[in-house]
Amino acid sequence: MVDITHYLVLSTIVFSIGVVGVLTRRNVIIILMSIELMLNSVNLNLVAFSDQLQDPSGQVFAIFVITVAAAEAAVGLGIIIALFRNKETVNVDEIDLMRG
Amino acid sequence: MTLIVFYGLAATAVTAAILVVLMSRVVYSALALIVCFGATAGLFFQLGAQFIAAVQVIVYAGAIMVLFLFVIMLLDPASEVFLPSRLKRVPVFALACAVLFTLVLLEAADRWAAAQVFTDSIAGTERSSGPGGEIETLAHSLFRDYLLPFEVTSILILVAVLGAVVLTRQHHETE
Predict the structure, then answer these.
(1) Does B47 sit within 8 Å of A50, measured CB to CB?
(2) Which CATH architecture has domain A4-87?
């Protein structure tokens, strides 16, 4: 039986790596993938606590998170394609369509 | 045994996550992300959440990552020119996948052996994480307590599909 702190530490590490990816990378596709990484680490937390408390609600919420992640990926990638069609770039530094 | 498998899967997940952020090529990031999702699926399996592990592999590592790879294929063909460097990294990913599968299989064998011992020793007592029992309790929770959020999720998916179609559609000049 692995202690729940192990999962929490692992989840924290992966989440931090995802945050670093969102903040440091300039490619918008990699930023979207880093967000998926963060959502994944949250899922790990939910399932770990579901196991710890013997309550299936955590797993239900993990399913909802996966669903929202799928919807987010579909819409996000659609936006990336539309952006690339207009600006010919995936670099977030060059995307300033909403600058006033 | 369980702890060794945990550390193996955790190390794989963290290494793959670091590679997602550090890789210069988007395709390598996507492949590393698939490895990370696979390792997380193994961890879910270890936690007794077999259904979440399966959904993780099918939806995350399958559907979402294929979507990502398709977009990368559509948008970024110009940076795919260095064939030698691409071939050099194939063994690394192959090794990562092999290690991952070995760990998952070890864990599965361990669980199975534990379940055998358990059913042999205590026959007749209820336990939620037995074979099939976990998914049953999950289904009861999902379709009874969380039925309304579950149905609302379908609307969310519908909106996302429509949004993706509208966003990616070619705008024709109709004047």
Answers:
(1) yes
(2) Orthogonal Bundle (1.10)
